[in-house]
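Q: I have six molecules that I believe assemble together. Could you output structure tokens for the complex as a whole instead of separate predictions?
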Amino acid sequence: MAKTKKQKSSSFSPVVMTELVLPSHTNALGTIFGGVVMGWIDIAAAIAAQRYSRSQVVTVSIDYLHFINPIKVGYTVKINAQVSSVGRTSMEIEVDVESENGITGQSKPATKAYLTFVAVDENGKPCAVPAYSPKNLHEKKRQKQAEIRRKARLEAFKY
Amino acid sequence: MAKTKKQKSSSFSPVVMTELVLPSHTNALGTIFGGVVMGWIDIAAAIAAQRYSRSQVVTVSIDYLHFINPIKVGYTVKINAQVSSVGRTSMEIEVDVESENGITGQSKPATKAYLTFVAVDENGKPCAVPAYSPKNLHEKKRQKQAEIRRKARLEAFKY
Amino acid sequence: MAKTKKQKSSSFSPVVMTELVLPSHTNALGTIFGGVVMGWIDIAAAIAAQRYSRSQVVTVSIDYLHFINPIKVGYTVKINAQVSSVGRTSMEIEVDVESENGITGQSKPATKAYLTFVAVDENGKPCAVPAYSPKNLHEKKRQKQAEIRRKARLEAFKY
Amino acid sequence: MAKTKKQKSSSFSPVVMTELVLPSHTNALGTIFGGVVMGWIDIAAAIAAQRYSRSQVVTVSIDYLHFINPIKVGYTVKINAQVSSVGRTSMEIEVDVESENGITGQSKPATKAYLTFVAVDENGKPCAVPAYSPKNLHEKKRQKQAEIRRKARLEAFKY
Amino acid sequence: MAKTKKQKSSSFSPVVMTELVLPSHTNALGTIFGGVVMGWIDIAAAIAAQRYSRSQVVTVSIDYLHFINPIKVGYTVKINAQVSSVGRTSMEIEVDVESENGITGQSKPATKAYLTFVAVDENGKPCAVPAYSPKNLHEKKRQKQAEIRRKARLEAFKY
Amino acid sequence: MAKTKKQKSSSFSPVVMTELVLPSHTNALGTIFGGVVMGWIDIAAAIAAQRYSRSQVVTVSIDYLHFINPIKVGYTVKINAQVSSVGRTSMEIEVDVESENGITGQSKPATKAYLTFVAVDENGKPCAVPAYSPKNLHEKKRQKQAEIRRKARLEAFKY
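A: Yes, here they are, computed for all six components at once.
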């Protein structure tokens, strides 16, 4: 039985990952291949979950991943991943991906995702993660929305 | 304005992809790295969408992707992707991933996903895809469930 | 000494692998790099050999691999691999590769190959595989041709 | 003749890149393969140079790259790259790599590097970059050290 | 119609490629994945064919590829590729792969292969390559054997 | 305490590595991505150090790496790595990279590098390498220059 670790102050910095879109990352349309972005998102989110829980983590699900704008070869990609809500052994991670034209400096939102990870112990069994206490209005709101998303999701995928 | 192509008989075969899990696909726990599976799923789903629409397609979203069982190095992975419901320019693709122990022959469900693709013309603008008419009870049920999922999803991610 | 496992009914389904040709798979001419196709063929054939023998397998040789038509970036590639003849510890695998223009739906034969694998036990020693009994005229003919190929090959590479 | 772009305030944020060491990144000793770290350093530094110059950039040289501590599989790697000194068309980038044990949270310096990039215009010709004016004592000291390094280097590699 | 370029002195040096077997190259048995070796062989052979013909070349076939000894992670691999016989537009390349234990210095033959390439002009049409005149007994013998192999092969794969 | 192995005759052949620049190796400018060349250089140099010391080796530093001319997609790259000077447990490796237009046969120097490796025993501790005795004027001069480089370098990076 997993017991809850001592409560954690909510301020922990997001994981920042910056990448350059090389020709080897593209699809036949000259924009980034979806699988490459998914891979980057999974890594950034896993690091965020590991930093929060200080344990090994495994990806449970992608709850939402939306490509907002295509990302072109030669662009810089900036990925931010942070814990948005926490269960007993699981963590929801919010990931924001921006793409930046390195020459003009203009950047646009490119992809938005929510993933769920579970912390596992040395035997691969789920283990408790520190409790999460939102420290300001923004974090409280985000936590509440995560709860609504989770319910709607459970509802949506009964079918 | 995109006009709807002529209606398509609903029977089209799923895309089948078989892969072998090599050490280069693994994470530090010796199971497959999430990003590798996501990449395979994205490719299989894109091919299914392209076969249905006979046009270039771009990934719009992963609506749901759930890792059911971990996949070990040396295992065979079998991916099935097929169109499950169709909008005017978009297609929902259902993807089922099984992992198989090549020695015992036992296989287990590993991952389940729904992705949405949009068909694009030569200028990258969304273009109409053939209408989808379910031809039996199973396909009708699947289409109805896709509709429910879509609504619940829209609801869930207002937040 | 390896003893022959019990005889197997000859009907086992081919391994099907579907891939999308990305820019990272190409050579400087814009067609697929030979080594990428060879890698896919080796994996599909290894899975077919493993499924037949229910043991670990190692590639012994490529007996024939012919590029019939070049494969272009953006095309879909469909690979079929199946056991075509069986020795005491070895299996010949026949592999057919087709490329498909995803927009027009037209497909062409792209590559044809025969590979030989040997089944190995947990110490890496060759071990017996189930005997193969062709169940119809087509399978009998294929087995006979495999035998002729094997002899001519041995003859050819004495030099 | 390249004319100098308008002077830039020296405060620009470093490029932050975070990576997870996967088995596919390792050498036969189970630590990260040098070429993988070099690749990450080159990308982070190129993005820093591009952000500063707002132009395409090419790597001219690695002036110094020192592996301080080995990086193990499963560790998180954090890369910081920032402009440390600026010539007329060239920029020296300072890169610091830390590795972090994700479970204990302990981090160590792993690699330190200085690279030189040159800004190029659309014809691939070197072009002027904004002048750099250090805004505090730390930046002034760093710039002076860069100058000493550069001289000693030119001296060192006459041979 | 392709006219034969002026005859070439037969002495041209083989292509030498040296590689280190990293964990990312292995299969689940800890030895090198067949597809990786095939990729290296294809590249080395293509360079040899290109050097001989001074034109673009495409892989036509692998006529023979035999894995003699398995190659372990951490080993050094040495690949030699050279033209062994020449047709009007095609070249047979002989490839020898050795693996070396870097610690003991012992090396063993690992793989042997013959591939056929065809020279192509800027429109992708086959074009003539320089005639090959063996300059010593060894080269004459090799050319004769290539001719025998070619005939036996044509015979073998009629079936 | 590491004791010096018996002195080695200075004649040992350089490591030769030949590669073909594929589209997957390029940056957004159509020339080779710096990280790819660095990876090849690190591997070639590591093999040279391992061959000299007959032990496992780890990269300590890149002391100098200069891109002289850009390398284009489709070109052949030839890498030469050899021991240039030897300490008690460390070895300096000199690496020369040439790029060759496969059609014209013209080749140019592309990159020049010096790297330092240290030999390690089975516990990862530095261990002695054979002493190096230059056997001719060229080797003596090279060794002396290495010594000057080493001093200037230590001087340069005190800052």
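A: One point stands out. DSSP finds two helices and seven strands in chain F.
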